[in-house]
Amino acid sequence: MPTKKVEFKSGQYIVYPTQGVGKLLRVEEQTIGGQKIKMMVIDFERNHMTLRVPLERAELSGLRPLSSIKKMDEAIASAKGKAGAKRMIWARRAAQYEENINSGDPMKLAEVVRDLQRRTASDTMTFSARQLYLRALERMAQEFAVLHKMDLDAASDKIEDILGVPKEIDLNAVEEDEEEVDETEDNEE
Question: Is the same domain home to 119 and 145?
């Protein structure tokens, strides 16, 4: 089956599905098992990781250039929609969300963000749902940040502002209040 070659240039930001956005540092030749193989050297600064991908396997591994601003805007718009059906058990849904995150596809990332985001300040999330949400949001924000030339935290905040996700409650204040109550109860005894 013929595959179309995607051309990448040194210094270009690219998306590796399971790691997110990285920067192509160079293409180098390495000898492995007596064969010379051209390897793409990709730096994932945020993860403190360098990945080498054989050039001939780049497309098969899902490596792709950044999406366009228009496609990213469409993904964010789809994340504003109504959450998908939640009729299957959590373990299956979590596995599906994990698969969507690792796809690197902005539309699939948007599905995860859409389904797991808090709609009101009083909404609660399980720990695992929160972790999946944050990973999907970060992957979207990585691409958004490069496309809009901003830092990752600003990109995450911007996406959540566009989606209308309520700001976090200050959990430290709650913990301090609980500690004060505990001290008072100890003194009364």
Answer: yes
What is the reported pLDDT for 188?
47
Phi, psi of 116 (to 5 degrees): -105, -10
Distances (CA, A) of 25 to 6, 31, 48, 111, 181: 16, 19, 14, 31, 55
Strand order across the 13-16 sheet: 49-54, 35-44, 20-32, 13-16, 64-65
CATH of the domain at 26: 2.40.10.170
What's the total number of domains in the chain?
A: 2
Averages of pLDDT over each 10 residues, the chain, 189 residues: 65 92 92 90 89 89 92 92 80 93 93 86 83 94 94 92 74 40 45
pTM of the model: 0.78
Give me the pLDDT at residue 142, please: 95
How big is the chain, counted in residues?
189
Cα(first)–Cα(last) distance of the chain, in Å?
78
> 126 lies in which domain range?
69-168
Q: Tell whether 101 is covered by a domain.
A: yes
The three-state secondary structure class of 26 is strand
